[in-house]
Amino acid sequence: MPELPEVEIAARRVSAAVAGARVESVLAPGMVTMKTFDPPLDALAGRQIGGVRRRGKMFVAEFGDLSLLIHLMSAGRLQVWDKRASLRDRASRLLVRLDGGRELRLREFGTQQRAWAKLLPADAVEADEAVAKLGPDAWPELPPGEFAELMDQSHHLHPLLRDQRTISGIGRSWVDEILWTARLSPFKKASDLEQDERERLRGACAERLGAALDHYEDVIGATVPDKLPMPLQVHRRAGEDCPRCGTRIEAIHFKDYVMCYCPEEQTGGRVLKDRRLSKLLK
Ligand SMILES: [Zn+2]
């Protein structure tokens, strides 16, 4: 799933490409993509796009007093195309046809339809349930006091940092990078953090997400590719050497994600039990 840096760079590029364009028509080939029906999509015809911004891991495309709130979920992409989509393109979920033949297109890979959009009055976006429940952004850097309050929960760091209601923008990829940067165990309880550990974690959130965004600004041109070149150092690198200490990066496989960490620097030298592996070996 795209996380804060991936959604932010896409919002910047898409916004630069479409700001000021006029909408000719809007289609939703995704049967379940639109989660609202009033106002109807037709209400966007003739309007100008003000811009596209990020809210948490979502996009907000602005059309005057109406806004489209878009969530890519795990396999969606929001991109600008020079030509209109073929109506046979099964990945199309939402097509905003612009003047000059261009198209702002929400696509989704795979057979599942989980990406969604809502057309809302612009002043209702913040009160929408998907937005209202979001915690503060993990980037830019949060003030120490606010971060300490967020971490005052007896949950393990790995799930807590991915909980968008606590802090927004971090998912399965960047959580591994942030915890590795802060040299903290994914299983440490947030409320057990010493002050210096909490400060390391606060800095690591902003540093890693900010560095990813800087990297994307350097390497991504006007068009956002389907697969972003993510500057990951431990996530998806199980079996490789830790770039800092050379210890083998270990992984724990869960049902729908993999947690990667450096045992030497994060778990006191202990290799944690991989439930999948131990099940297979029985
Ligand atoms: Zn290491």
Walk me through this protein's architecture:
This protein has helices at 4-18, 129-132, 144-150, 157-162, 172-181, 195-219, 263-266, 275-281; strands at residues 23-27, 51-55, 58-63, 66-71, 76-81, 92-98, 103-108, 116-121, 250-253, 258-261. It is of the alpha+beta class and 282 residues long. A hairpin with a 4-residue loop joins strand 6 and strand 7 (103-108). The chain starts with a helix and ends with a helix. The protein binds zinc ion (ZN). The site of zinc ion has 7 residues, from helix 7.
What is the residue-averaged pLDDT? 95
Structural class: alpha+beta
**Would you identify the regions where 5 or more consecutive residues have pLDDT less than 50?**
none
Percent strand equals 15-25%
Strand order across the largest sheet: 1-6-7-5
Measured as a percent range, the helix fraction is 25-40%
Could you give a short account of the major beta sheet? 4 strands, antiparallel
Notable traits:
about 30% helix, alpha+beta, about 280 residues, four-stranded antiparallel beta sheet, 8 helices, binds zinc ion
Provide the fold topology.
Elements: H1 4-18, E1 23-27, E2 51-55, E3 58-63, E4 66-71, E5 76-81, E6 92-98, E7 103-108, E8 116-121, H2 129-132, H3 144-150, H4 157-162, H5 172-181, H6 195-219, E9 250-253, E10 258-261, H7 263-266, H8 275-281
Antiparallel strand pairs: 1-6, 2-3, 3-4, 4-8, 5-7, 6-7, 9-10
Helix pairs in contact: 1-6, 5-6
Bound molecules: zinc ion.
Q: Can you describe this structure in just a few lines?
A:
The protein has 282 residues and is of the alpha+beta class. The longest helix is centred in the C-terminal third of the chain and has 25 residues, at 195-219. The protein is elongated and about 60 Å long.
